[in-house]
Design a protein that fits this description.
The complex is a heterodimer of chains A (about 70) and B (about 150).
Chain A lengths: L2 E3 L1 H8 L3 H8 L3 H8 L8 H11 L3 H4 E3 L6
Antiparallel strand pairs in A: 1-2
Chain B lengths: L8 H33 L8 H30 L6 H27 L3 H35 L3
The chains are: A mainly alpha (about 70), B mainly alpha (about 150).
Chain lengths: ~70, ~150
């Protein structure tokens, strides 16, 4: 997918673990892992909002567009 | 041929049901006359040929048992609260195919031994089979939607 989730980078900057973040944004650890490992197909605005609030960042800090080789 | 489209199987089933409603209602209303006409015009054969019936019931019976087995698989998954799986769509498609085979067998039987029940079973299984085919496709679409939803965080 051409959209890359850079959640791990932002989490490292804020020095927060996966389970701590999961608790803060009210997501299951499994779902947060899917998101972190770039396996998610979509992200809800409400989830994005909660993550941005928890990490005190902008959506652009978490999501990145990279041109796909296939296109 | 597309399964779910106005010009595909689902469209054909819809037209078939339209015709069935009209024909069915007409037959039910005209029963007092049409039944008499049937008895006068058609020679009804009860189908007492042992070997033919034995082979026929053996084949359709086997199809029927496999159908029930497939249906049981679906219900097992439903009871496990995991209804939307690709496997269920496949099972449903197999049930539809078996229903169409049974219908075909009964249509062949109509040539040799005709009876009211044979006609009713043939039509019922034909409609059931085609509808099953459409529902299996619908189920497949539901599975895709569910997968998409599951991966939406």
């Amino acid at each position: 997918m051409a959209i890359i989730v850079n959640l791990d980078v932002m989490m490292a900057k804020r020095k927060i673990g996966l389970s701590d973040l999961a608790g803060k944004v009210d997501l299951t650890l499994a779902n947060l892992s899917i998101l972190k490992n770039n396996k998610a197909k979509a992200i809800r605005f409400s989830t994005l909002e909660a993550i941005c609030r928890a990490l005190n960042c902008q959506p652009g800090d978490i999501l990145e567009y990279a041109a796909d080789d296939k296109q | 041929m597309e399964i779910i489209s106005e010009k595909g199987i689902s469209g054909a089933v819809k037209y078939m049901l339209d015709v069935l409603i009209v024909v069915g209602a007409a037959i039910v209303i005209s029963l007092p006359f049409s039944l008499k006409w049937c008895f006068e015009m058609i020679t009804w054969t009860a189908g007492e040929n042992y070997w033919f019936l034995l082979g026929f019931l053996f084949v359709t019976g086997t199809f029927g048992v496999v159908m029930v087995f497939e249906l049981r698989q679906i219900f097992r998954r439903i009871n496990e609260h995991k209804p939307f799986q690709r496997q269920n769509a496949t099972n449903l498609k197999r049930i539809a195919a078996l229903a169409l085979l049974i219908s075909a067998a009964y249509i062949i039987k109509m040539i040799f031994f005709i009876s009211f029940l044979t006609i009713i079973v043939a039509i019922a299984f034909l409609v059931f089979g085609l509808a099953g085919l459409v529902f299996s496709e619908l189920f497949k679409q539901a599975v895709e939607v569910k997968e998409e939803n599951d991966l939406t965080i």
